[in-house]
Design goal:
heterodimer, A: 332 residues, 8-stranded mixed β-sheet, 4-stranded antiparallel β-sheet, 11 helices, 24% strand, B: mainly alpha, globular
Chain lengths: 332, 308
Amino acid sequence: MSDKLLKIEDLVVQYITDDGIVEAVNGLNITVDRGKTLGLVGETGAGKTTTALSIMRLIPHPPGKIISGGIELDGMDLLALNEQRLEKIRGDVVSMIFQDPMTALNPVITVGDQIAEAIMIHQKVGQAQASQKAREMLEIVGIPGNRSNEYPHQFSGGMKQRVVIAIALSCNPKLLIADEPTTALDVTIQAQVLELMKSLKVKFQMGMVLITHDLGVVAEVCDDVAIMYAGRIVEQGTLEEVFTEVKHPYTEGLFNSIPNIDDRKEKLKPIRGLMSDPYNLPKGCSFCDRCDYAMPVCETEKPPKIYFSDTHFVECHLYRDQQDFKLKGGMK
Amino acid sequence: MTKYILRRILMMIPVMLGVTLLVFFIISLTPGDAASMILGQEATEESIAELREEMGLNDPTIVQYVRYMGDLFQGDMGNSYATGKTVNSEIAQRFPNTFVLTVSAIFLSVLISIPIGVVSATRQYSIFDNVGMIIALVGISMPSFWTGLLLIIAFSLKLGWFPSGGMEGFISLILPAFTLAIASTASITRTTRSSMLEVIRQDYINTAKAKGVTRNVVIRKHALKNALIPAITVIGLEFGILLGGAVLTETVFSWPGIGRLMVESIQRKDTPMVLGSVIVFALAFSVVNLIIDILYAFIDPRIKSNYS
């Protein structure tokens, strides 16, 4: 068995609407090793959630459509499977945690039943056994098992997210996709939930794709980082490589957008402009209209992929001729 | 929960008081004289005046109302001006017929509309959806007396499958129940469809799918129960409209129910009978809405927790 758990190759996903074609994901490549965590970082609209839903094969169709590419999960070609096979994989081999815990739980079903449902589907056990296991899962995420008969509205936001995590982990998946699992939570609760996910990741030995726009969360949890912009990975490397040797101007922009606690008089440096219109992406580099380093070639040619190590690459024209080019913003 | 039900029952009292007051005064404003109607055309002025005095028709309306309510609280709704029989006995005889008709109609329309609404929503913009919604629009636009007449022409006169009126066994129930059901089927279908469309876009539907729940179970278990909450409200309201529709439908199909009794009584200015019928209608409507509210609490735990 290879050590690659998830392998996405040249994935292209589009939303075909009356107003035109939204190019949400444009030739995406990522891999996740068994037991490792990949942070998928980017701003709103970069295609992170679309990528996640593609792995689940839950892209709403219509309007969404996987145009081309390959998704291989645990040796299975996900794009070739029919709906019945996919239903067996969802929740069992791969699980997903959604962004907003307030709306992710069914309001008219008890949390215990919502956890037990996945167990009954995948582990072929009866109601009683599944309910017992559901209570155990609640205990694992730090909720007393006797609350399993309560409904979602009786839980706080952080508790709900714990329930969502319990559902996702109930069948011991090999891969967990967490789509901004802490964005909707208070900062204190965020830390608790992250801590919980970190410990459960070790306990269940699963691989994880953590989708976020928060570099702090990435530093906390991830082994590898992929920076996503306009449907492509523009820079990828190990946590250390990306955090210490920032190569892509967009990655630099993300770091510069974080307030500096040591110098609060310093002005924030947000990335100027807005993300390119996904209905009408530029011909060259998608980031060129916001990039401080943009050159004429950026507007006309797609940037090449340049490797700095086996794991660290960037898609940028800056490094094509001079591999040791240094961004001026420097490091944090 | 008991407290909630009790409170809802208590709330019915002012509703019923309001209904009687309103109807009593509206009837008293209509022209015509009950005494001369009872005695017929050959009665003398004197005997009419005598009867008016005897029935208390010369008293102010408010006094008449208080007297009526006093009797009502003792369970006496008076005697029919037209037949002389007690209103209680007439209503007791007619109400079961109306009950059977409206309940069959509501069952029929729920049975038809919920599945159509669900399928229309899950296959939005498909042929099924478009045809379904056009039929619903047609159904909602046709008044029940008109639908009733069309059905009689088609199924009684032309095809001869069903009787055109009267009440002889189950077969004569079919056309009036269907007539009554059509309009409410249309609006329940539309509500089910739109609330279903909203529900299937919710995050928790994605959560369910991500668990590996099959498409059918997602719709039946996760979506439908949530979508039914608005649908049930409409079903309750439709029941009221059905009762109103029963007045016309019963007349069209000569169905011996309270609706027809009321129409006949209005024509005869049979005040106690009209009042009695209206009170029974109002009471039935209130009770149905009470049942709907209790159903709510069973479907939606958030409502239940507000009252426990």
